[in-house]
Predict the 3D structure of the following.
Amino acid sequence: MATVAHALYCFESLAADLEKREGLGLVQVQDWWDRYSGRGGNGDGNDEEGNLEELEVRLRRGQKEEEDPSLDEDDDSDSNEGQLDPLPPTSARKFETNNINDLRLPSISRLQETPSSSSSASSSSTPSSLSTTSSRADVSSNSTASKSSSKSSFFSFGGGQLSPPSTATNKKMERPEHPLFVTWNTVSERTGNKSLRGCIGTFDAVELGSGLKSYALTAAYDDTRFPPIHSPELPHLSVSVTLLTAFTPCSTPLDWTLGTHGLRISFTHHAKRYSATYLPDVALEQGWTKEETLTSLMRKAGYSSGRGGEMWKKVGDFRVVRYMGAKESCGWEEYKGWRDWVDQRRNE
C-alpha cells in the first residue's frame, strides 16, 4: 500500500529537480521517515532512539577501554554509527538524474506518443471537467523545454553522510513493483480546498524507486492540461500517490462500487478505439452516480457523439475493468518539516 514516505519522495524528487540538486533516493526517504515518525515528528531534534543508540555505543567503548587500556581514545571505528553512507556517484545511479528525459520508462514513452487517428487514450485519472485544454493527459516529449529557467532554492542542504540501511531498510530494497498514479493539487490558503494541478500514471507495474520519481516529475511538468509546475508553487502544493491493485473485468458496466473501485473503460466507435480511467476517489469527490461516472469517462476519452442516458449502449465493444487503489498524501508543510529535520540531522 502507499505510504507517507512515497508521497514525501515525490515532493523530494520535484523539489530537487527544480533546485537542480541531488535528491534523496526512495530507500533513504523511507529510512529518514521511519526515524522522524518514530520520534513523533515534532521537528525538535530529540530523537530518543538515536540518543539510546549513542549511549549504547559509548557504553561499549567504555567497556573496551576498561578491557584494553591501550585503546586509543580517538579510535573512530564507530564514527559512522547512526550515519548513512555517502550517496553513490551519479554514474552508479541508474534512475537518479535531474533530467526528466533520462527518466522515460517504457510506459512513459507510451504515454508520450501522439495518439493515432484510430485511437484515443487517457493516462490521467481526473475529470475532464477540470481540463481547460485536452481531456487526455498524453505526455509531450518536448514539454520539458517549457520548465522555468529561473528556479529559486527553498533549502540550504549541507554535505554530511547518511547511515547504512537498517535491517528494515534492507527489506525495502526488494524493489516492489506496482501500477501507480501521482497527483499534484494546489491547496487554497484561504479555504484549504484542492484544485488539480497534474495527474499521470501507468497501469504497467513499475519499480517504485524509479516509477514514483518519474511520474512525480511527469505529472508536474507534462500533464498537457496544465502548464509545468515552477518553484514558487511548491509551498501551495500537495501530492497523492495511489498504488493500484485488484484489477477485475466487470461483468456489466455497473458491476463496481462507488468510492471503492477505480475504473478503466475502453470501447470502439466508427472503427476508433477510446479509453479513459478514473481513480477510486474521483466519483465520490464529484458527487456522481455510477451512470454519470461512466458518461463522464466516455466524454473524457473523447467520445462526443451520444446524448442521453446509458451512452455505453450506443458504442461497440464497451469494456469496464475495476480496480482498487491504496492512496496516501502529504502537503508542503509536512514535507518541509520532515526535510528540515533531515537536513539538521545530516549536518550534526
Q: What stands out?
A: The beta strands are 119-120, 177-187, 194-207, 237-249, 262-269, 272-278, 316-331. The CA atoms of residues 11 and 335 lie 7 Å apart. Confidence is low (pLDDT under 50) at residues 40-122, 128-169.
